[in-house]
Fold this sequence. Notes:
Blueprint: H1 8-28, E1 34-36, H2 39-47, E2 56-58, E3 80-84, H3 93-102, E4 110-114, H4 119-132, H5 136-139, E5 140-144, H6 151-154, E6 161-164, H7 174-182, E7 185-189, H8 192-196, E8 205-207, H9 212-224, H10 226-234, H11 248-267, H12 280-293, E9 300-302, E10 313-314, H13 326-332, H14 342-363, E11 369-372, H15 385-403, E12 427-433, H16 441-449, E13 453-459, H17 465-471, E14 472-473, H18 477-496, E15 503-510, H19 518-528, E16 532-537, H20 543-546, H21 554-558
Parallel strand pairs: 1-2, 3-4, 3-6, 4-5, 6-7, 7-8, 9-11, 11-12, 12-13, 13-15, 15-16
Antiparallel strand pairs: 10-14
Helix pairs in contact: 3-4, 3-9, 9-10, 14-15, 16-18
Amino acid sequence: SGAAGSTKDLQYWSAWVGERMRHIKHIAGHVDLFISPARHLQDRFVSAGLIPRARVTYLDYGFDRARYAGRQRTAGEPFTFGYIGTHKESKGVQHLIEAFAMVTGTPPPFLRIFGRPMAQSTAALGRLAARLVKDHEKRVEWRGEYVNDRIVADVFNHVDAIVVPSIWVENSPLVIHEAQQAGVLVITANVGGMAEYVAHDTNGLLFEHRDPMSLATQMQRCVFDPSWASKLGAVGYLHSVDGQIPSVREHVLEVIQLYRGAIMRCASSQAIPAPKAAPAAAIAKMTHDVEKDLSPPFWRITLDTNPDDCNLKCDMCEGFSQYSTVAQERWERGLGKRRMDPDLMERVVVEFVNMNIAWSRRTGKRQALEVIPSTMGEPLLYAHFERLLRVISREDKRLRKALGSGAGPSDDMPLGCAVPPGPWAGLYLNLTTNGTFPRFGAARWAELILPLASDVKISWNGASKATQEGIMRGQDFNQVLENVQMLARARDALVAAGRPRCRLTFQLTFLEENYAEIPRIVELAARLGIDRVKGHHLWGHWPEMDKRAMKRDAAAVAR
Length: 559
C-alpha cells in the first residue's frame, strides 16, 4: 500500500468506516432515546442521518456546585490566563502560546498551564514558549495536574480567565461549566459546544476558531480592562436565570423523567416506530454480509509492562537520556515506577485471544496475533516477563486448538505482520530490546523467547564501538555483538528443526553521528544474519539533541 499512487489504504479504511457507520445506524434503530449533553452534538448525529431527531433529546451535565464555591483571587498578581487540560495538539495549546506572545501590558500578563505533562508534546510547547514569549521563565508557568476536588484552591484562585482554545470541535466542555460556576471568565472558540455555552460579550468572549491573532485580540481586551473582564466572568452560566450550572440533583431528576417517558411510550405501544422490518431474505443477506465481510479485530496489542526500567542511558531516549527530566519530575510528584500488574497483563492477553477466536469462528478466517511488551525502557527487566511468556505460550495453544490451526498458513494475514515466511495463525511475542539481555544472558533468553517470537528488534546505532557506545551509553559493544551472534545461531537451529523463523531486526535512530555509518550497519547486519534494518528519525525531546537530528534543516534533509 506504500507504492506511489496506491489507493489500497484509502479503499480499506473507507470500507471500514462505511461498515461501522452502517452498523451504528442499524443499532441506533433499536434505541428508543438518546441523551445529548450539547445541542451541537445532537444536531451532528441528526444531520449525519444516524439518529432521527425525535429520538434524541438535549440535557446538559449535572455538577456538584458546592465544589466550585468560595473562589478568592490571589492578590497582587498581574492579569493571569489559565489553561486546563492535556497538552495534545488537538487541544490548541500551541495557539494559546502564540496568542499570549502577542499580548502586552504593564505589568506583563501571566499564563498558567494546568494538566498532566505529555513528555514530547509538553517539551515542544515549552520550546515554543521560550522562542515566542519574552521573559517566558517568569511569565509562563507549567502547574501540572490538580485534584478536581481542589480546583478552586489550586486553579481558579490563581487565574483571571480560562482559555479553551481547542482545535477540534468540543462537545460540552466540563471546564467551561466549572469556570462559569466559580465566576471565572471563559475565552473560547466560536464553534461547536464551546460557543453553545459562551455568548460573546455577554458571559464570556469568543474568538475565530483556530486563529491565534483573533484569540490575542480578546486576551488583550482583558489585560486593558481587568475590572470589565471580572464582571463578565461573574455572569456565569448562560442557560439559567441565576447564572448557576445544573446541579447533580436537577440532572438526576431530569434523567428519571426522560426514562419514565420512554418506558411509558413503549408500554402504551406509542413508542417511536422502529425501522420498517425487512423481508427474511434481506435479513439473511445482511447477516451474511456483516459476518462474512466484517473487518478483523486488531491483531497486535502493546502492553506498558515496565516503561520506567532500563539499564542504559541512550541519548535519544525520552525516559533515560542524560538530558531527560522525566524520572526527576515523577519523583517530585510522588509517582512511583510504572509496572503493570501481572494479573491485568494476563487478563488483557486472554481477552485479546477471545476476541480473535470469536471473529475467526464467525468468518472462517484466521490471522497471526502479536503481543508487544513495553517499547520504552528494557522489557526484559520486567519482573513478570517469564509469566508473560507462559501466558503467550498457553494462549497460543488455546487459539490453535480452538481454530484447528495446529500448523498451516494464515488465511488472512494482516498487512505488515512480522511472521515471515508463510506465517502460521497463532499468538506471537514481538520484542524490542537493547541487546544487553539483562538478568539471564543471551543464551537463556534465546531459549525462552525465540520459540514464541515473531520478531526481535535490537536497538542498534553504530557500526563502530565508539559510535554505538557514544549513543547507547552504558552498553558494551563487543558483548552485545556476541549476544546478537548467539541469538542468530539459536534462531537458525530452530528453523532447521522445522519451527517458524523469528525475524531479527536492527532498529536504529538516524543521527548526525551515525548517518555516515548506515551502509556499514546494513553490511554488519547481513554478516550477522539479521533479517532487516529498520530506521526512524529522531524525536527531539530536548534542545541538546536538536543539532543531531537529520531533519533539523533543509541541508540535513537533502543529505
